[in-house]
Amino acid sequence: MEAEFSEMRNELQSRDALWRRIQLECQRLHTELLKIGEYKDMQEIQIKHQSSCVQITEQLENKNAELLLLAQSQEHQREELNKIRNHLYQEEQSHCSEQERMKTEISDLTEELHQKEITIATIMEKASLLERQLKMELEIKDKLLAKQQLLGFRYNIIKSENAHLKEMV
User: Is the pLDDT of residue 47 over 70?
Assistant: First the structure.
């Protein structure tokens, strides 16, 4: 967009320079018209130069018509340039608003992520604690199971000794 704006600015400067040249040409032609007017006052010169005066007058009329067309064209181009400037301003405002919205959204998402990280850390701590508790309970149960197996083995030994003693008795 900035390249388009620069291109338009260059074109506008070019047209302003053209307009200045046209104004200078108008002044020169006006001076020529004054001179022609002075020459018109002199009948003798007027008769000799009547055809050239007609040509110059036609040229001046043509130049005036061209100047009028250029002035209209320049006004139209200024209107277009103003429209483009307004559009560019609106786009810049829209872009700034969008950036602010995105910054706010990023900030909100960052805060939400931070909260989730805190929650995950808390859950990990609780999971670690539960894991330790489970290991301790498993160790206790393994010890109790080993004791139970040992007691069961002793019970079977005593039972077989009792059976053997009953036979002997």
Answer: no
For the chain, the domains span: 7-168
pTM over 0.70: no
The span from the first CA to the last CA of the chain, in angstroms, equals: 115
| CA-wise closest residue to 66 among 34, 18, 33 | 18
Q: What pLDDT, on a 0 to 100 scale, did the predictor assign at position 49?
A: 53
The pair phi, psi for residue 40, each rounded to 5°, is -65, -35
CA neighbours within 13 Å on the CB side: how many for 73? Answer: 12
Q: What is the pLDDT of residue 24?
A: 84
Residues 6+ apart with CB under 8 A from 64: 26
Q: How far apart are CA 164 and CA 169, in angstroms?
A: 9
Residues 6+ apart with CB under 8 A from 66: 22
C-alpha–C-alpha distance, residues 70 and 88, integer Å: 26
DSSP 113-124: HHHHHHHHHHHH
Per-residue pLDDT tens for 105-136? 999 999 999 999 999 999 999 999 999 999 99
